[in-house]
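Review box. Two proteins, two foldings.
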Amino acid sequence: MTIQERKKNLEFLGKFLSQFTSSGIIHRDGIPFNDLFFEPFSTLIKRAHEQNGWFTQENILYATGSWAQILQPEKIDKWFKMYDFNQLSQPKNVGVVMAGNIPLVGFHDFISVLMSGNRVKAKLSSNDKLLLPMLAKYMEHVQPKFKDYITFVSGKLENIDAVIATGSDNTARYFDYYFGKYPHIIRHNRNAVAVLTGTETEAQLSGLTDDIMLYFGLGCRNVSKLFVPVGYDFNKIFKAFLKYKDLINYQKYANNYDYNKAVYLMSVDRDVRDSLIDNALVLLKKDVHYSAPIGVVFYEFYNRLDDVQKIINQDVEKIQVVVGSTPKINSIPFGSTQIPQLWDYADGVDVIQFLLAL
């Protein structure tokens, strides 16, 4: 399969996904194989929500719409130009163990294996087992050669040459034990953090609430920790949260919010109770850790930005991405955490380069 054939396949997939965005599900003319896939995929979105209550239609459409933005011809071309695909001597079988915390969270690994010229053996999470196989079928219809390159595995991963596995800190230890003998990328818990100065605009704070609340905060790129200057006025953030006020009416989210609130309020540690800030949608809790439970965002005060940079450097293995607007901190803009580009790799590990070197 030529590089051009692979690129064209991604372009067609992007056009197909452009029908499923936050604006709604809208049928468009001129998209290959739309008569076979549009209605089934529309139905599958509803089934995915029934199978996993965290996968609301809004969240699924945000994910598919984001991928439609990412899979633009100029972005695909830029991605491919970063590599020498002649490095790969022959296709290898690459096992990909996927997480299921947000819709299509393993899709980047999936297409990276295929675009590198390797074969993918994908082991889906039980929480996200419907959407990707349908998109894989679409890719196979656009380019039948992909049929020999895509396998979904329900049991044990076997006959593989390398592994990419994503999970929690606990499962990462399991992955190390079972897959350590293969060339591998093994990911564990990471979270995004935001560094605030108190000078953020309303638009920036609105973007920050997207970084926090999209996907109910379940993604590794969701902001779960804030670094704020001493004396910071949290009312600025609370005003920005208003656009998500209806989220508290979603029972699964509300149950987690109520539970965590009760746990903190009943804590024997007075500092925990006194540091809790509640706006009836999100709990802000003073904490040095990064992985906050659903409905909670940790915060930590600082005196100098240099101190924050030291903490980030020290805890780099726990942080997926940093959000902010100060030149002193290497960060990405507010509101951009959930739309990474094709060359933005999880944990900063270049997956394509890893695959081409097999």
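Next protein.
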Amino acid sequence: MVFGDPKTQQDAQEFFSYVMQSLDDETNKRRDITAPTASKRSQDPAFSTLHRAVRFWQEHTSRNDSVVSKYWRGIEAGTVSCQRPGCGFKSTTFEVLDNISCSVAQDTGDGYHPDLSASLQAYTKLERLDDLWDCDRCKANGLGRSPATKRTAYARLPERLMITLKRTGAGDSARGGTPAKISQRFEFPIRDLNMEPYFVDPADRVIDRTDGEVARMYEQERQFHPQDKYDCYAAICHTGSSFRSGHYIAYVRDYESSDPTDWLKFNDTNVSRVKVGSGSGADHVAWLYGKQDTQAYVLLYRRKP
């Protein structure tokens, strides 16, 4: 996958970002609309996090109506909660995302291989802040800084989910800063990926039905309902010891076949049929997880009907 300067090899994730940005720019029907002032209701703590996320999405789509927004974009919610007794104030920051970046941890040496669920759990777990926090409510009441917790969660999951695996390690100064590649095995589900554990807490999904616009969008868009599962339909793998060199191979589900284990392997101009997720001797899951110098780098999922 090469774009830009033909003398340089570009990263697969950079390529996808380039394509996504171009599609977003070219297909956005509302790109000439001036961005409205952010609604206070998207930050009003009187509403649940999910309610405010729907409101935030309404504001976003009022000026972003593209193919990328429709199929690929979700919402990440970062919430800081005051832990002073009797306060309970929360501040949430919403961000639009079109891919989820997951850490590939180092092997512990005891035979354990990290996987997608462990990486997502680590990213979305509740944590206590090391420093005290400036809580707006406590500050208004003349109190000092407060202990607080933080949690990152997903508040909207798109129809098409792109997950990139962070396999780039620290640069090697002896080789001019060439980034090292983390080549260890990393497991992920081919079918039935469950994203609900990483969604906003169930108690924070209450929709105020008196807010008719939010209630209608919530009912109409499955993206705000995390119960649906995902199937992997493509994986971009990298071969080689460094991202400065090597080669990309794509595995793509063959949707002309009714057998979900029928996939196609794209290696430049060569296309061959392979089995993925069958459990047979020809199974290519081991190659996707990481075998020799071949590892999955970009995962593409679609929501199950």
